User: What shape does this take?
Amino acid sequence: MTRLHVIALLASTIVTLAHPVLAEPYIAFREGLKCSTCHVNQTGGGMRTEYGSYYPQTDMQPLLGNLSDASADFSNQVGDSFFLGADFMAVEERSFAVDEVKDGQSYAQDAQHTFDIRRGNIYLEARLAPERLSLYIDETVSPSGASSREAFVLLKGLPKSSYLKVGRMLLPYGIRLWDNDAFIRQVTGFNFDNQDMGAEIGFEPGMASFSLALSNGTQGARDDNSAKQVSSVGSIYFKYLLIGGSFSINETRGIDRTLFGPFASLRLGPLTITGEADWLSESGNRNQDQFIAYGSINYWMRQSVNFRVAFDFLDPYDTVEEDERSRVSIGLDGFLTPNLTASAFYKLKKSIPQDSKGNADALTLALHAFF
Assistant: This one.
């Protein structure tokens, strides 16, 4: 599949379909909400705001009604100014056996079955001046031990609906999917495993949202040069359509890295379609141009269940023929209660024959508790 074919596929998907977001962007896109509506972090992810917490209780019909009613009195507020939050996801994953052959050479991998904790985070927000000044901490406690993911001071209510964020943070870029393995998250480096030290300023006038960050460009370590990374994301919301774009540039260890791309989401009744395309160029000590794409279709059922088909694509070297990787994910997310979801997804993978892991289809079952 050529790059033009992939672009045409994504374009036709976005034109003909649509996609939904809350614990993940699909609910926000469906409802036409900004990331800051549901999350303390203005660019999404992490702790939920009061609206983000109440939304599943008031606008959904969870599958376990009695248990949902019993959880209605739960509160994450401690005193007048402190708020807690958490995300915990346990998974069972089965990878199927692979046996690829190229030029008489066999590339095989046995089937694998594992239980794992995909995510475990605890959040704390101290509202030093309500609606204006807060201290926010996002601590990863599992699966690999305690570490700081985000820790910043957030100043809101500035002129022109702007805000200022200073500290350790997830940098603004693209669609903030939960799936760190999606190529638009894994290859670009803008995912939940990578943070940086710096400052971010944002504007949210009307139905628009823009964020710009200046950071060390060292994924949280002390900087080793005078250059800084610039990363940005912006979007405009229409009644049924969201259009946005992202840009990032960084110089580190003798490599100049430039990344940019558009994204969009369209809602048609219970359908929501989302797509993102990115071009990544690296030059200096090494030269490499990559094309990365993602598209998804979400169908919202019964006010509690979401059916999703997602497509991942990566062309790691534009000068090399037939080195593309692709994945298709099919599955369901269901809200059991306002604070508990279950999901099942099957991922079909296609890569070069030498990449056994990249060719191993996988079935993932997950249970996600959050507040």
Remarks:
- Residues 3-370 form a domain with the Porin fold (CATH 2.40.160.10).
- Helices lie at 3-16, 25-31, 35-38, 50-58, 65-70, 183-186, 356-359.
- Residues 3-16 form the longest helix (14 residues).
- The first strand starts at residue 77 and ends at 78.
